[in-house]
């Protein structure tokens, strides 16, 4: 069998002050207009988008071949803020190859990882500097910034795992995280369609 061409080791450096990765790899930015339909308060979304289009999060994907033997890894940051009572969050996804897991190390900030299995169960874990969150195979995952500084985390997953946003774009997730009396609370998503 022909051997894959030898891939050279690489180093990336994350700067905790500028919040940039060097080299940046592939930088993906998501503004509110990229995920406006995901928030509960659609009047608030419209009101905000009439004035500006805030950056909700961005992530740096180190450029790694998307094959099973490799480990994709990235640095993501969700900025602090809310749409109405709902905290800024990532879109969330299943992996295209559902049977692939992921590990997250939180580097800075405060948040929650909202997970939902293909069977419809929910699990929510705290994210804060030092937490290592394991996302087992077949769990969708979304990160919510419940603090007042950027929520920054490092994630690593199988090279060919891929991303499936479709189900969450269509249906949302069962649980949402809102701020009530200055604190994050878990609520049923009134817009979730079974
Ligand atoms: C990839 C991993 C993260 C997310 C990133 C953005 O499997 O979970 O790198 O891609 O945090 O989230 P999302 O939901 O927009 O891909
Ligand atoms: Zn993932």
Helicity level, as a percent range?
Answer: under 10%
Order of helices and strands: EEEHEEEEEEEEEEHEE
Helix vs. strand class: mainly beta
Alpha-carbon Rg, integer: 17 Å
By CATH, the architecture is named Sandwich
* Content of β-strand: 35-45%
Structure annotation, total helices? 2
Could you provide a short overview of the structure?
By secondary structure, the protein is mainly beta.
Task: Please give a structural write-up.
Helix content is 8%, strand content 43%. It has 194 residues and is mainly beta. The radius of gyration is 17 Å and the shape is globular. The mean pLDDT is 96. Bound molecules: D-sorbitol-6-phosphate and zinc ion (ZN).
Protein traits:
single chain; 194 residues; 3-stranded antiparallel beta sheet; globular; binds D-sorbitol-6-phosphate; binds zinc ion
Task: Reconstruct the topology from this structure.
Layout: E1 13-15, E2 20-22, E3 26-31, H1 42-51, E4 55-61, E5 71-78, E6 82-83, E7 86-87, E8 102-108, E9 110-117, E10 122-128, E11 132-135, E12 139-145, E13 151-158, H2 166-171, E14 175-180, E15 183-188
Antiparallel strand pairs: 1-2, 3-4, 4-5, 5-13, 6-7, 8-11, 8-13, 9-10, 9-12, 14-15
Bound molecules: D-sorbitol-6-phosphate and zinc ion.
Zinc ion binds next to loops.
């Amino acid at each position: 069998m022909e051997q894959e061409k030898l891939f050279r080791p690489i180093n990336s450096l994350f700067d905790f002050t500028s919040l940039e990765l060097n080299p940046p790899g592939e930088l993906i930015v998501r503004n509110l207009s990229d995920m406006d339909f995901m928030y509960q308060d659609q009047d608030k979304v419209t009101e905000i988008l009439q004035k500006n289009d805030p950056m909700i999060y961005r992530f740096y994907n180190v450029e790694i071949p998307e094959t099973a033997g490799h480990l994709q890894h990235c640095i993501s940051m969700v900025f602090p803020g809310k749409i109405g009572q709902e905290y800024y969050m990532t879109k969330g996804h299943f992996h295209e190859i559902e049977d692939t897991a992921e590990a997250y190390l939180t580097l800075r900030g405060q948040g929650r990882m909202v997970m939902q299995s293909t069977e419809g169960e929910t699990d929510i874990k705290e994210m804060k500097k030092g937490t290592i969150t394991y996302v087992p195979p077949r769990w969708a995952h979304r990160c919510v910034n419940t603090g007042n500084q950027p929520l920054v985390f490092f994630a690593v997953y199988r090279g060919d795992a891929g991303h499936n946003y479709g189900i969450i774009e269509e249906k949302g997730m069962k649980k949402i995280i809102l701020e009530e009396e200055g604190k994050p609370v878990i609520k049923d998503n009134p817009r979730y369609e079974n």
